[in-house]
Amino acid sequence: MNILVAISRVPDTTTKILVGSNGRNIDTNNVKFILNPYDEFALEEAIQLKEKNGGKVIAITVGPAQAQETLRSALAMGADEAVHCKIESEFDSNTVAVNIADYAKRMNPDIIFMGKQSIDFDSLQLPSLLSEHLNLPLATIVTKLTIEGTSVKAEREIEGGKELVETSLPCIISAQKGLNDPRYPKLPDIMKAKKKPIEEIEATTSDLFVEVVGMELPSKTRLNKMFGSEDADINEVVRLLHEEAKVI
Amino acid sequence: MKTIFAYLDSVNGTIKRTAFEIATAAAKLKAEKGSEVFAIAVNADNSIAEQVKEYGIENFINIKSDLLAKFSSQATAEAIFQAAQEKGADVFLFPATSAGLELAPRISAKMKAGYIADVIDFKFDGDTMLIKKPVYAGKAIITNKINTEVKVLSLRPNVFTAVKNPAGSVNFVDFTPNLNNENVKAFVSNTFKNEGKLDVKEADIIVSGGRGMKDADQFGIIEDLAGTLGAAVGASRAVVDAGWRPHGEQVGQTGKTVSPTLYIACGISGAIQHLAGMSTSKFILAVNKDKDAPIFKVSDFGIVGDLFDVVPKLNEGIKKIKG
Ligand SMILES: Cc1cc2nc3c(=O)[nH]c(=O)nc-3n(C[C@H](O)[C@H](O)[C@H](O)COP(=O)(O)OP(=O)(O)OC[C@H]3O[C@@H](n4cnc5c(N)ncnc54)[C@H](O)[C@@H]3O)c2cc1C
Ligand SMILES: Nc1ncnc2c1ncn2[C@@H]1O[C@H](COP(=O)(O)O)[C@@H](O)[C@H]1O
Q: What is the pLDDT of residue B62?
């Protein structure tokens, strides 16, 4: 099986977000970047599938030079090859989709795995964009995947329950937490990953469909009213919720 | 901004609450830009039109196709696209729900249009639409503009308050799309509801429990309080990882992002990844025995005490005012 996994590079979840000097991006000084957590579930599923059926796993990312670190993480987890689609100018999801789609058309994967969302802009759009660009069926936010022959059954999370999506290979799957337990690369894997090849290709650039014009930190001010646990305290909290906040 | 398509999320012919929020947002655009608004639903019951009329919708397009009997985002998007070409739609509003989040980017790809997901606000600066969305799990908010003529937005649920503004009458149109089996290569064959439980994503009030709950059996007091309030039960990751609660209830960076009007955190310390999922809640009430717990810094009301004592007392107090 030929498997393509699209991965992205994002700030670590514990990062304190500060607005950069241009007022449009985050200040990346002292920010640690990691492989997008949802992409770990995507990679793990891909690697397990390859271990079962043979074939190879190729990880691809669209991004600047630093994106190579992220590809190394994917190689350490067990991807066989990595593709760096280089872009230094500002880009949006449409550009990412166009470039991954171009590569996928040449590679013809049996299945493409992605994360359900990138935890930077949280937009959950690339899997659907790619599905349109490649005219491939898609199941998103998948927590359980069963593949038999070319038939695919994917359980996905929805509001208040689950859905079963049925489709067939080739297709695109976006991974949600719960799909599997991603492996931690061991030191020898990390060493081996350093020697694996990273193919470099120049990204096609296109006009930006969307542009960020400003960034701000949420300015929500909280009441910060503190109480003890005496009956009088509890009654006062209930009264405030009812009469002042009017939420109950 | 001549023609707005407002997608109404429906399940088995009944529309979801987000539909009224979408309708209200569309009405706002109409008021500001004089656009014509079309509400779109799939294989819906026409009684839906009567409901959305209350929110100012005058045109209702019901997409009818047997191929859409089972939900397929690929086919539904194709059908909406076909209707959009007929009507010349140039603004698309979707709810940022599991269905809307798949449909909106598809429409943006088909229309070669810019798309902003999970929008919490939009306004105009002259002709430029300035669109806000949270990023980095709510740790920052960005303002975007869309450079393409056609614009696609998905709106975060519970943020755009639905406001009644009845329209005179509704103009019904049935639309039969031209679909084939190619369009339904992936379809939903079955849906499982979490029995009787309200989902954190849809709830107005959420009562969440953390590791302070001690074990799975103790969640009864959380469920009781949630029952009294008509609220959903939420959980921290510590609790989900311990297997006390299902993953669907997890709130936070790797769980769900919620913005209810009231979020009650019981025995939750307030780790940054938990806050990422609930810090945009309108009001936050925290119960924790540690007066220095970080959750109190982001709370409107904080009760320092043993939750096994406090939560049942809160429940009694609230029952009293609910009569
Ligand atoms: C990549 C990553 C992603 C993550 N994603 C998430 C996520 O999506 N959601 C999430 O929640 N976490 C997430 N976490 C985990 C997060 O860092 C915390 O570990 C977790 O939120 C802690 O859960 P807790 O508050 O229930 O437990 P604890 O931190 O152990 O807090 C328990 C609290 O209960 C209080 N308490 C104990 N007994 C009582 C009592 N009798 N009465 C009152 N109070 C009491 C204690 O004072 C304490 O404050 C993530 C972590 C990482 C690294
Ligand atoms: N720059 C990128 N390069 C490759 N894949 C990406 C990139 N950005 C996002 N993805 C993939 O698309 C998924 C969803 O991202 P998003 O639509 O940005 O929330 C991610 O989990 C990745 O699998």
A: 93
A229 CA to middle of ligand 1, Å? 21
Contact indicator for A229, B309 with CB cutoff of 8 Å: yes
Q: CATH second-level architecture of B205-322?
A: 3-Layer(aba) Sandwich (3.40)
User: A17 is written with which tokens?
Assistant: 């977000």
Cα–Cα distance list, B63 to A6, B6, B29, B173, B175 (Å):
34, 13, 23, 9, 5
Is-same-fold flag (B3-183; B205-322)? yes
Nearest-angstrom CA–CA distance, B208 and B145: 36
Do residues A5 and A74 lie in contact, with contact meaning Cβ atoms separated by under 8 Å?
Answer: yes
Q: How far apart are CA A75 and CA A59, in angstroms?
A: 8
Share above pLDDT 70 across residues of chain B, in percent, rounded to a whole number: 99
Domain boundaries, chain B: 3-183, 205-322
Contact criterion met (CB < 8 Å) for B105 and A128: yes
Q: CA torsion B17→B19→B20→B22, rounded to 10°?
A: 130
The phi, psi pair for B134, rounded to 5°, reads -75, 145
Say how far apart CA A45 and CA A176 lie, in whole Å: 11
* Chain B residue with Cα closest to A23: B142
Do residues A69 and A15 lie in contact, with contact meaning Cβ atoms separated by under 8 Å? no
Query: In this predicted model, what pLDDT tens digit does every residue of A104-151 receive, in sequence order?
Result: 999 999 999 999 999 999 999 999 999 999 999 999 999 999 999 999
Q: Which residue of A has its CA nearest to B311?
A: A234
CATH of the domain spanning B3-183: 3.40.50.620
Query: Cβ–Cβ of A227/B189 closer than 8 Å?
Result: no
- Is the complex ipTM higher than 0.90? no
